[in-house]
Amino acid sequence: MAKTIWFDTHSHLQDKAFASDRDQVFQRAKDAGVEYILLATSNIEDSRVAAELALEHQNVYCSIGIHPQEAGRWDQKSAQFLKKIYRDIGKKAKRLGRDNPIKAIGEIGLDYHWDNDPREVQKFVYKEQIRLANELNLPVIIHEREAYQDSYDILEWAYNNGLLKDEPGVSHCFSGSWQGAQRLIKLGFTIGLDGPVTFKNARKAKEIAAKINLEKLLLETDAPYLTPEPYRGKRNESSYLPYIGKVVAELRNAKIEDIAKQTLINGKRVFSIK
Ligand SMILES: [Zn+2]
To answer: How remote is the CA of residue 1 from the centroid of ligand 1, in Å?
Structure first.
C-alpha cells in the first residue's frame, strides 16, 4: 500500500517552543507521513526566520506577513520589508535550484478576541496586505477571531476589486458556522480545520468537517498551539496532523488515506506547489 502523505498547511515550527528539538520535530513529522509543511508567520522578523528555515528543508514552505494581533507594528515601510524578504529568499532559493518557498501572505486578518490594536488599524493593515498579496500574486492565510462579518466585508471588497486570486487562500482555523464557511467558499476560499475538530464539544467544526466539499478543506496543526486529542494540553507539533485527519475521516465515513490524499492535493493547489 502506498504510504499516506499529509500536508500540514499551518504550523509554526520556527517558534521558540521548538528551539531545543526542532530537528527531531521535523523528523517526527516526516516519519508520521507529514511530508509537506507550510510555516505560518506573525511579523517581519518571524517571516525572515521561517523563510530561512523553509530553505533548509525539502517540501517546507512558508508565508510572510503581519498577524492581526501585531497590527500596530505595521508602518509605511512594512510592505517594502516584506517584498525584500520575498525577493532575497527567491534569489537564495534559485541558487539552491529550488522554487521560492514563500507561498502566501499571512497570517493576516482581524482578531477581536484579543483586540491588541484598534479595529480600524487592524482593518487597514489587513487591506494593505491583501494588496501586497495581489501585487506578488500570492494567496492569503486569514486569521479571523470573533470578527467574521468585518473580515468577510473586507474579503468581499477585495473580491469586487479584483484583488483576489482564483484560489485566494484559506480561512485558517475556521471557527465560524457552516453558513459562514459556505460564504467564504463562494469567494473561492478553502477552510482550514485544526485540533479543535477533535474536541468533544466542537459542534460547528465537526459539522463543517462532515459536510464540506472535500476539495475545499485544508488540515492544519497550528503547532505549537491547539493540540489535538489525544495530546490536548501538551505542545503541538506537525506529526500530530494525522489525528486531525482521522477525526475528519470518521465524521465523513471516509477512508483516512482519502482525506490525506485530497487535502494534500488541495494544499498544493492553493499554494501553487508542484
Ligand atoms: Zn497560526
So the answer is: 33
